[in-house]
Amino acid sequence: MTIPPTLGLVLAGGLARRMGGGDKARIRIGGATILQRVLARLKSQCSRVIINANGDPARFADAGRPVVADSVPGFAGPLAGILAGLDWAAANAPDCEWMVSAPGDCPFLPSDLAARLHAARIAAEAPLASARSGQQIHPVVGLWRLSLREDLRRALVEEDLRKIDLWTARHGVAIADWSDQPIDPFFNVNTPDDAARAETFANRYPEA
User: Fold this and answer.
1) Which end of the chain is more exposed for a tag (fewer CB within 10 A), N or C?
2) Which residues have CB under 8 Å from 97's CB, separation 6+?
3) Do residues 60 and 12 lie in contact, with contact meaning Cβ atoms separated by under 8 Å?
4) Is 138 within the bounds of a domain?
5) Do 127 and 172 touch, CB atoms closer than 8 A?
6) Within a domain: residue 65?
């Protein structure tokens, strides 16, 4: 399907505590960093792609993408990254009424992510969509409508809301389904064991 102009947002603000610190997005899987794999997948589907990360943005300079930090202080979680992306789109990509988000630790994102999320929200007549693989919903892998950004800001700043699904439920969220076999497309790397499994998957299924 032809999708409307859509911004891609990579959420790369995790602290990687279970990996011993550092940026998980820098882990190499199948000959490329996870960040490179995520950017490549989103670039083929989105009008523009940006990175949400806190701290020194220069550490992502080699990615050649704008890096935006949370505008809500105190590491308010993924919703703060979503808001930062929506704010950037409003200021810099006025043609984009939609944004697709994905975490920077998922090396096997599907090539039809944006299209299937859009199809789901159209079918459900909803302003938001989330991905599901198998029986697991992945709220950070989602489609967001720019017109909801001020409501999201109020929820974060005035209500101190942190759970994605509590906020999306207020507006209506469609679910787009993917199989989790032979690889879960939203498999995320949190530990050294996860990284080893991902490398095995990448070698076995190089097209993933």
Assistant:
1) N
2) 4, 5, 145, 146, 147
3) yes
4) yes
5) yes
6) yes
Q: How many domains does the chain have?
A: 1
Half-sphere exposure for 131 (CA within 13 Å, toward CB): 25
Q: Alpha-carbon distance 190 to 171, whole Å? A: 30
> Does residue 95 sit within a domain?
yes
Tokens of 199: 């490398």
Per the confidence metrics, is the pTM higher than 0.90? yes
Examine residue 1 and state whether it is found in any structural domain, yes or no: no
Per-residue pLDDT of the chain (208 residues), as tens digits, is 789 999 999 999 755 444 445 578 889 999 999 999 999 999 999 999 999 999 889 989 999 999 999 988 777 789 999 999 999 999 999 999 999 999 999 999 999 999 999 999 999 999 999 999 999 999 999 999 999 999 999 999 999 999 999 999 999 999 999 999 999 999 999 999 999 999 999 999 999 9
- Strand, helix or coil at 94? coil
Name the residue range of residue 91's domain.
6-204
